[in-house]
Design brief:
Layout lengths: L1 E5 L6 E6 L5 E4 L3 E4 L3 E6 L8 H9 L6 E6 L5 E5 L7 E7 L4 E3 L4 E5 L3 E6 L2 H6 L4 E6 L1 E7 L4 E6 L2 E5 L3 E5 L2 E7 L4 H6 L4 E7 L1 E6 L3 H8 L9
Antiparallel strand pairs: 1-2, 2-7, 3-6, 3-10, 4-7, 5-6, 8-13, 9-12, 9-16, 10-13, 11-12, 14-19, 15-18, 16-19, 17-18
């Protein structure tokens, strides 16, 4: 299986080249094109985590209830085009099985069938950060696609790194994180418009996005015309 990132910058997408026997899983609704020999199935579960409960947990993670799975049905190669909802970059992670990846709400786009997709509850921290209370966990060996709002920056954390909430895309589980105020006091943090930040520590990779979709929605919402009843 080969995955090609199409476009550049704000409107990136992914083209998955399927070989006979390959299966790829994506967030439902992500497909924008597929060759005629591609079979599309809709399910609530990935390789090993199934049932309605898995779909409900993904809703808490800010993802869709269903997965879409793609495979060719005639023994010939095929193609599937996938694109995220938000305008931004798409990033391919080659997972070697040495560590799991945790995806923040809305950043999971797709994965090869060898990757197990599950959820991990953040605990009380998730409600305070403004992120979804559940992360999407990807484990195993294979290819993982994540998407961002804006530009994706890959950071290699070897000690500590502070990230504003709403800008986390995905990170290796080898990293720990804690909540902290951005300024010298909670009052100065809120007055500066920063509030809570995430302090990552340890050793591992961390993907961040340049823009915050929550902040954009907060700015855009009041400017939209009122709905007629």
């Amino acid at each position: 299986m080969e995955i090609e990132i199409l476009g550049k910058g704000a409107f990136e997408s992914a083209l998955v080249h399927l070989q006979p026997g390959d299966t790829f899983v994506s967030e439902s609704g992500a497909m924008f094109r597929a060759s005629a020999n591609v079979d599309i199935d809709v399910t609530t579960h990935s390789r090993s985590s199934g049932g309605l409960l898995s779909g409900l947990k993904r809703l808490l993670a800010g993802e869709n209830f269903f997965f879409s799975t793609y495979s060719t049905e005639d023994g010939q190669p095929g193609q599937v085009g996938l694109a995220p909802t938000h305008q931004g970059e798409v990033h391919l992670i080659e997972m070697d099985g040495s560590s799991d990846w945790l995806c923040a709400g809305g950043s999971f786009l797709g994965a090869s069938s060898e990757i197990d997709i599950d959820t991990q509850f953040q605990g009380f921290k998730g409600f305070l950060t403004g992120e979804a209370p559940v992360f999407i966990r990807a484990s195993g060996r294979g290819q993982l696609l994540v998407a961002a709002y804006g530009r994706i920056v890959s950071n290699q954390v070897e000690s500590e790194l502070t990230v504003d909430t709403g800008h986390v895309v995905a990170f290796e589980e080898t990293l720990d994180y804690s909540l902290s105020k951005a300024g010298s006091s909670w009052i100065s943090s809120w007055l500066a418009g920063e509030g809570i930040v995430l302090n990552f520590s340890g050793s591992g990779r961390l993907l961040t996005q340049s823009h915050n979709p929550g902040e954009f929605g907060g700015e855009l919402g009041p400017r939209l015309p009122k709905r007629s009843s």
